[in-house]
Design brief:
By secondary structure, this protein is of the alpha/beta class. The protein has a single domain (4-58, 100-270), classed as Spore Coat Polysaccharide Biosynthesis Protein SpsA, Chain A (Alpha-Beta Complex), CATH 3.90.550. Helices cover 33% and strands 17% of the residues. It has helices at 12-29, 57-60, 62-71, 99-115, 136-141, 174-186, 198-211, 249-252, 267-270, and strands spanning 4-11, 35-41, 52-56, 120-124, 128-130, 149-152, 161-168, 216-218, 242-244. Strands 3-2-1-4-7-6-8 form a 7-stranded mixed beta sheet, sandwiched between helices. A two-stranded antiparallel ribbon has the order 5-9. Helix 3 (62-71) runs antiparallel to helix 4, helix 4 packs antiparallel against helix 6 and helix 6 crosses helix 7 (198-211). The longest helix is centred in the N-terminal third of the chain and has 18 residues, at 12-29. The mean pLDDT is 92.
Length: 276
């Protein structure tokens, strides 16, 4: 049987808004054989489950600590300054250049893949909610052995949705891929690209590996379908078990029922309040 470890990260504000719900729902609906590692950012997480463990990211990742110290006063790493071609900078889309905001998950993945002896390390965003009992067979179905990683690709027009990314540690290139991905942050080469948030840079490295003949499994069955690119997580097979409250959905605590184009008949979706 393949071994899976799920990882996530959030700070105290995130824990209060969504992270504690994420952990609680993991405890209720994931297989007991799967561990959850929460890489904490100055917070703690109440839990009674033996398969949920906390790791202080700052205390355990030297390269993460160095990155934060190096860029704590750098506006370019915090979305306050765009790429060298300033005409491309748009303050309304500052997330594209918020390297620090999105670095935590990259360094959590880097630490996990290099220290945890599981077959697969699954990154799961902290603003997700597991709502239906998940069988181990499902994890096997979305983690095929011949792929370096799994992701939610959205065609060539948009960057991947990285609320779920599976990293195959047993693939010959699996650990190297993560080290090269994190290396864009460790070596500050992230600033050489038009955007430097994690999803854009994941795709940069994914394409490099694909050009070398390596395979990545797209969990999004309709990456180019108009109207579905904005919320592929819940309209993939993942949506049968997990909701992703990205963006303003964190406030309401669920995705809207009309956003479900594929799994709109499951019990969880039927319980979502309808908005007129």
């Amino acid at each position: 049987m393949k071994r899976y470890t799920v990882i996530t990260t959030f700070n105290e504000e995130g824990r209060k808004l969504y992270g504690q719900k994420m952990v609680n729902s993991f405890q209720n609906f994931w297989p007991r054989e799967v561990d959850l590692i929460v890489y904490t950012e100055g917070t703690t997480v109440p839990t009674q489950s033996s398969n949920v463990r906390l790791v202080d990211l700052y205390a355990n990742s030297k390269v993460y600590k160095q990155f934060l110290k190096r860029h704590k006063n750098n506006p370019q790493a915090q979305g306050g300054k765009g790429p060298n071609n300033e005409a491309k900078y748009d303050a309304r889309k500052a997330f594209k250049w918020q390297g620090i905001r999105f670095c935590h998950k990259v360094f959590a993945v880097h630490h996990a893949v290099n220290t945890i002896d599981s077959d697969w390390i699954i990154w799961l965003d902290g603003d997700t909610l597991t709502h239906t009992q998940m069988p181990m067979q499902f994890l096997d179905s979305v983690s095929p052995d011949e792929y370096v990683a799994t992701h939610l690709g959205r065609g060539e027009r948009y960057h991947s949705e990285c609320g779920w990314v599976g990293y195959n540690r047993k693939h010959p290139q699996g650990i190297d891929f993560v080290n090269d991905f994190a290396g864009l942050y460790i070596n500050d080469t992230m600033f050489n690209y038009p955007e430097w948030h994690d999803s854009f840079l994941f795709d940069v490295m994914r394409r490099e590996y694909q050009n070398k003949g390596e395979k990545f499994f797209n969990l999004n069955p309709h990456p180019d379908t108009k109207g579905l690119a904005g919320h592929p997580f819940i309209n993939s097979d993942l949506g049968r078990y997990i909701d992703h409250m990205k963006g303003k959905r964190k406030i309401q605590g669920y995705s809207k029922a009309n956003e479900y184009q594929i799994h709109n008949n499951i019990d969880y979706v039927k319980r979502i309040p309808r908005v007129r």
